[in-house]
């Protein structure tokens, strides 16, 4: 599965399934166990979908069994020994905090889709299709975390969705040089057609004016989406608001790096490091 900058409520770096945060120093201690349980659930699903040398058919079978285990847990069943370390803590967190199982199911559906789409060398027709994938691969993260913080008003959820989808898109445009050779195509058919770029051009060892413009336009789309969700930081009190400020600025900083490459992220992966932290902190304070 694709990785991304940390999603809302964690500024701490994550080394594996970055759509879920690991409980950071800013996270209230009482929420660290459920967040860790959710992270373990998503990380294990990510491993099933993306790690090792299993065939697509085996990955899909494992994800189906994992999904069945999720629903068995929700029905009060005893965890299968294979994933007891995941579903034991998750069952406790779900019971204690009333975590919506449907959101976790959405995450698994996105993992399944990613395996299937890649195996079939399929593509996304347009941005609406890609956003539907983000709705299940990224947006549940923000909603689950807001649930833990007791935030459930419609405006906050909408803005959280915008931030999470933006983070997923930012990851796509950051990882073009990694994903494309592996047969993962997130640049949509409609966007390629609009800029007159053939999909075969994306694998060439050089870029063109059109392919660079395509990438820059997609980055601008992600930035616009992130900015539309950013006011959420003012609606969330205390620690969660400060964590979200850093998350937003981390995503925007990656877009700065994509912009600086002027479309050449097709050939090289832009990264954010410790040297970028002072700027991110300053911008977070400025928010």
UniProtKB/TrEMBL annotation:
GO biological process, one term: terpenoid biosynthetic process
CDD domains reported in the protein's UniProt record: Trans_IPPS_HH
GO molecular function, one term: geranylgeranyl diphosphate synthase activity
Source taxon at top rank: Bacteria
InterPro entries: HSQ_synthase_HpnC, Isoprenoid_synthase_dom_sf, Squ/phyt_synthse, Trans_IPPS_bact-type, Trans_IPPS_HH
Protein name, per record: Squalene synthase HpnC
Annotated organism of origin: Comamonas terrigena
Gene: hpnC
């Amino acid at each position: 599965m694709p990785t991304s900058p940390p999603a809302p409520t964690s500024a701490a770096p994550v080394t594996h399934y970055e759509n879920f945060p690991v409980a950071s120093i800013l996270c209230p201690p009482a929420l660290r166990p459920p967040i860790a349980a959710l992270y373990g659930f998503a990380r294990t699903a990510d491993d099933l979908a993306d790690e090792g040398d299993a065939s697509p058919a085996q990955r899909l079978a494992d994800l189906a069994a994992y999904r069945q285990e999720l629903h068995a847990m929700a029905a009060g069943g005893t965890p299968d020994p294979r994933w007891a370390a995941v579903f034991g803590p998750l069952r406790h967190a779900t019971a204690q905090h009333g975590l919506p199982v449907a959101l976790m199911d959405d995450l698994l559906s996105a993992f399944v889709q990613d395996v299937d789409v890649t195996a079939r060398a399929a593509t996304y027709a347009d941005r609406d299709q890609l956003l539907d994938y983000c709705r299940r691969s990224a947006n549940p993260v923000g909603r689950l975390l807001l649930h833990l913080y007791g935030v459930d008003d419609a405006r906050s959820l909408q803005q959280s969705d915008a931030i999470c989808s933006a983070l997923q898109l930012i990851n796509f445009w950051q990882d073009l040089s990694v994903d494309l050779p592996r047969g993962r195509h997130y640049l949509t058919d409609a966007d390629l057609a609009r800029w007159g770029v053939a999909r075969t051009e994306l694998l060439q060892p050089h870029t063109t004016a059109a392919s660079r413009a395509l990438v820059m336009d997609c980055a601008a789309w992600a930035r616009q989406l992130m900015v539309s969700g950013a006011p959420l930081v003012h609606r969330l009190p205390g620690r969660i608001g400060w964590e979200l400020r850093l998350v937003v600025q981390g995503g925007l900083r990656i877009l700065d790096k994509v912009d600086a490459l002027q479309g050449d992220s097709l050939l090289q992966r832009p990264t954010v490091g410790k040297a970028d932290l002072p700027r991110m902190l300053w911008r977070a304070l400025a928010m």
